[in-house]
């Protein structure tokens, strides 16, 4: 029988070679520089061992639209361009990185996403706030508001 430690390390080693598709970086740069999107949802293609863009949301899309794009029982990475007004009445924006790992996701999937997260996040230069979420309440609008300042 394989111990849980050995299983984890073999999965982590497999995941550490995860490639990042160029489109991920290009779409992120468009979100950051041109504000072309409100959000981007990324998915790990396990067979190809790479992170790909699964979905993009136009700038007029809402936080609710974004939350509806995340599957109930599968992990994802996402970035969300959150606009807000400060107490001094200044319009500001923060780019959030969300590691979506619902409790109902497969253990293997959670391990692959967890072990690949830091490397993937480094590819996206300009992330300002990171959120880890296992259910929708951990990334609702109030959480964004409290973390944005």
What does this structure look like?
- There is one protein chain.
- With 149 residues, the protein is α/β, with parallel strands linked by helices.
- Helices cover 39% and strands 28% of the residues.
- The chain has a six-stranded mixed beta sheet.
- Helix 1 runs parallel beside helix 4.
- The longest helix has 17 residues.
- The protein is globular and about 50 Å long.
- The N terminus is likely disordered.
Compact overview of the structure:
Strand 2 and strand 3 form a beta hairpin. The protein has helices spanning 4-16, 22-34, 63-69, 107-123, 141-148; strands at 19-20, 39-45, 50-57, 76-85, 91-100, 129-133.
User: Can you list the strand order of the major beta sheet?
Assistant: 1-3-2-4-5-6
Note the run of SSEs as H and E: HEHEEHEEHEH
Helix content: 25-40%
- Count helical runs: 5
Give the terminus-to-terminus CA distance: 49 Å
Low-confidence stretches: 1-15
Oligomer: single chain
> What fraction strand?
25-35%
What general form does the structure show?
Answer: globular
Present the secondary structure layout.
Layout: H1 4-16, E1 19-20, H2 22-34, E2 39-45, E3 50-57, H3 63-69, E4 76-85, E5 91-100, H4 107-123, E6 129-133, H5 141-148
Parallel strand pairs: 1-3, 5-6
Antiparallel strand pairs: 2-3, 2-4, 4-5
Helix pairs in contact: 1-4
Features:
149 residues, alpha/beta, 28% strand
């Amino acid at each position: 029988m394989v111990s849980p430690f050995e299983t984890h390390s073999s999965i982590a080693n497999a995941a550490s070679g995860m490639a990042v598709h160029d489109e991920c970086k290009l779409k992120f740069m468009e979100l950051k520089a041109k504000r072309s999107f409100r959000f981007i949802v990324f998915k790990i293609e396990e067979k190809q061992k790479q992170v790909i863009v699964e979905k993009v949301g136009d700038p007029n899309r809402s936080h609710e639209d974004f939350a509806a794009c995340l599957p109930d029982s599968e992990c994802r990475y996402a970035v969300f361009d959150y606009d807000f007004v400060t107490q001094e009445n200044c319009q500001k924006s923060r780019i959030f990185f969300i590691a979506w790992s619902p409790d109902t996701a497969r253990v293997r999937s959670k391990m692959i996403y967890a072990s690949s997260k830091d490397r993937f996040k480094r590819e996206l230069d300009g992330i300002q706030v990171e959120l880890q979420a296992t259910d929708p309440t951990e990334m609702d609008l109030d959480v964004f508001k409290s973390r944005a300042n």
